[in-house]
């Protein structure tokens, strides 16, 4: 007899229940689904939130990222042979100052502090031994150089590598040698993520795409890359890159950090965001129990003991496959989630597409935490079960709903709509600064003004943002023989167009022939400013001018006579010595 396989219906992803949830998600934050977490993690998050008086999501996101960082690059999950995902998570708690957004950060620091102290003490002891061995090597090297033997020179002892796990506010260039020494992965744990984004080369230069940005995207997927150092031209290759990121950021800073170009690059789409409703701080006597803290500590220790497999003498991650039922459930989710993705605008669709991979990453963390807790049918090298996949899918759905709400709150609208004005917010800020400084400015003025344009080699950046204002009909170039000025044009918000602008700007008419030329013509060839013709003077004004001229001549003659009197005073002649016979 043939056995019939029952196919469970797809979850309601476009039914009335989800539509109602999405309608609420635009204004109201949904509670974090604690029941999706393993029991140990669920208790840790709940007690931590009650002890701090914060929303559970503020504790849950940093805790998930911490567990993923402890796994590092030792494991990957595979949906199929060409689709794998590492245990790397990037998360940001969004909130204003004083909203208890740093509670999860503090708990993660406390959870890992003992390991960091141990790593530091071990490295100090290793450096003491290295200094003693290096002193012996120096003496042996001196003795060998003075001798006349054909023996081999003494070998210099290698400097011990530092075992690192937590890094804070470091650029990618400085992280490369650290990643090379720690192939297991690192944890970028920082209270304020603004320094993390400012440290990227792409963002420190004003939001333009660059090498650092693309390399950070490679780090998110644990892909290898190489770096050529400028000082000694040494090439450093990192076969496995893995850095989990966790921190906090204020809503205004998040909105200003990610311009439309940065959203299109995919950097924002890789960030898991939570932004709970602000709560008034209240006193509470509740504290996290020592039993809960120790149980979570044991899970962290178990995850940190996971190791790579060695293939051809090099460490490689162990790839965990999905069970048959887990793979079937994930295939259903991919199909339904893909139908949702194409219904969103460009900005939200970029983030929506990443939640398929995040479902796999959440499932991998869930599976390995349960294996560390000793649950049945869960092994650190065994297949991922359906329950873990289900939890990963539901977690990704919650984060997708939270992302949609945050994007709507922070006005991350369609990228096409944002491109209708200036290319980025930097040009708008530049226009505001020029208006506050009289409505016009030279390149040198701008170079001494906003911090973004200070320093050497910033002329190209200044011209780029100024040309953006010219293309959007917000300003125009006025060139003279010695200097170029960017002058703001009157806008509708200025009333009659001349109230809030200086005289130089009032003389510019948007209907003039110069203003009607294309932006490319303005950039390549600028007409010289015409000199103003002086009006003929009337008789009375001529007499006045003659009188003023005569008085000026008299003053000049008086000054000349005064200087002559001073110079007429002769100095006494110097006494000469009598000639010697």
Automatic annotation (TrEMBL):
Pfam families: DUF3987 (PF13148). This is DUF3987 domain-containing protein. Residues 509-520 have a biased composition (Low complexity). Residues 558-581 have a biased composition (Basic residues). Residues 138-162, 492-581 are annotated as: Disordered. InterPro entries: DUF3987 (IPR025048). It comes from the Bacteria. Coiled coil: none annotated.
